[in-house]
Design brief:
- The chain is of the alpha+beta class and 132 residues long.
- 33% of the residues lie in helices and 39% in strands.
- The chain has one domain: LytTr DNA-binding domain (OB fold (Dihydrolipoamide Acetyltransferase, E2P), Beta Barrel).
- The model has no long low-confidence stretch (mean pLDDT 84).
Length: 132
């Protein structure tokens, strides 16, 4: 009887863990001093470096300051549609409206934000844009 109960609990634990992992797959967890955010990755427009902090800018313009570096978020979001275009910016490619050429390259986002593309990341940007 005890063995059956343990097997049942193990199966239920695996099912719950799988549901939780599926839920968290498209979420970014950000902990601040007074709140834990579960952000939908598709709602994040871009991330901006602020020294050892990162500002997460949502598509509605809301900003959340995280005490992690931009490099940390670049690693976490490496398999998502995010691309490093500058040492200070990580952009959600789903929000790119166009690329402006005026001596320098500037990304125009859907929410009318302009982000400068640095020379070092220009090739990476164009390689990713041409793949799509």
């Amino acid at each position: 009887m005890l063995l059956k109960r343990l097997i049942y609990l193990k199966i239920m634990w695996k099912k719950r863990k799988k549901k939780l992992n599926n839920f968290l797959e498209n979420k970014l967890v950000i902990s601040t001093s007074n709140y834990i955010y579960l952000l939908d990755i598709d709602e994040i427009a871009y991330l901006k470096s602020a020294s050892n902090y990162t500002k997460v800018i949502m598509k509605d313009g809301k900003e959340i300051v995280a005490s992690k570096t931009l490099k940390y978020f670049e690693y976490i979001l490496r398999n998502k549609a995010f691309l490093r275009v500058h040492s200070s910016y990580l952009v959600n490619m789903k929000f790119i409206q166009g690329i402006k050429r005026n001596g320098k390259y500037t990304i125009e986002l859907i929410n009318k934000t302009s982000i400068l593309v640095s020379r070092g990341f220009k090739g990476k940007l164009f390689n990713n844009c041409l793949k799509k």
